[in-house]
Hints:
Blueprint: H1 2-26, H2 33-55, H3 62-84
Amino acid sequence: MIYIYLLVINVLAFWLMHHDKEAAKAGKWRTPEKRLWLFAVIGGAAGIWAGMIQFRHKTKHPSFQIGVPILVLAEVFIVARYFIG
């Protein structure tokens, strides 16, 4: 069940990065950074990171450059430690 949750949250996080990038280019309403961080913290860090790379979005923000990869490592460690064995 945890794997389905992680898949869904990371797909949503990736989509959110795409949506925010498109909104930025079009000058429309943007997704607040707090919401992007929320998705990263609740398990979607890999999706946020993939979106950063794929869409070249938030890549100049030091908090995203450093924080998101650290969260990815932390989430991998947590899943490996508590759900794989």
